[in-house]
Write a structure and sequence with these properties.
Blueprint (H helix, E strand, L loop, with lengths): L13 H8 L13 H4 L13 H10 L5 H9 L3 H7 L4 H6 L8 H21 L2 H8 L18 H15 L5
Helix pairs in contact: 3-7, 4-7, 7-8, 7-9
């Protein structure tokens, strides 16, 4: 039987077989901050966040105002800027105690922003680089900054597309 030079053959001797089997698997686990960490950890969010249904339940319950500080830190923005993204006055946000719950609409927006931050850090590499990216004018946005698009769901969708292009090495 003639061997095809294009076909990859599995190692036949035991030594070659064991070297392939014992090779360490590549670490494909993402080790950046997860949604709970971005929102301030277990003290800020004490409900499970394992799927979409948990996020819906959390949206309906509301999240604590304390989560905003952590989110703003990961985004590299001030509380005033974050208040603007939530379509609320900074003073209105300041009036709330840290353990007070945000209303459904603000909670939903905070969770949407936190999920975007998580994805952004995953693609860009670090929270610091992601925060810098948010403040950098991009040709794909007519030289506007990504931070200027985070106040609407449609703007966030555009930014997700840009992150997808960056992930695959497409100039944006």
């Amino acid at each position: 039987m003639k061997k095809d030079s294009k076909t990859k053959h599995f190692p036949v001797n035991e030594e070659d077989f064991l070297s392939v089997v014992n090779e360490p698997a590549p670490d494909l686990q993402y080790t950046g901050p997860n949604l709970r960490i971005i929102l301030g950890g277990n003290k800020a969010v004490n409900q499970p966040l394992s799927g979409d249904l948990d996020l819906i339940a959390l949206t309906r319950t509301g999240i604590k105002k304390a989560t905003l500080k952590s989110l703003a830190m990961y985004m590299g923005i001030s509380m005033e800027q974050l208040s603007s993204l939530l379509h609320s006055s900074h003073r209105n946000i300041q009036r709330k105690q840290d353990n007070e719950l945000l209303d459904t609409l603000k909670t939903e927006k905070v969770l949407e922003l936190a999920a975007f931050v998580q994805r952004g850090i995953e693609v860009i590499g670090t929270a610091a680089y992601f925060a810098e990216w948010l403040q950098s004018p991009l040709p794909a946005l007519d030289n506007k900054k990504p931070i200027d698009f985070l106040d609407t769901t449609f703007g966030i969708q555009i930014l997700y597309k840009i992150l997808g292009r960056l992930e695959y090495g497409v100039y944006s």
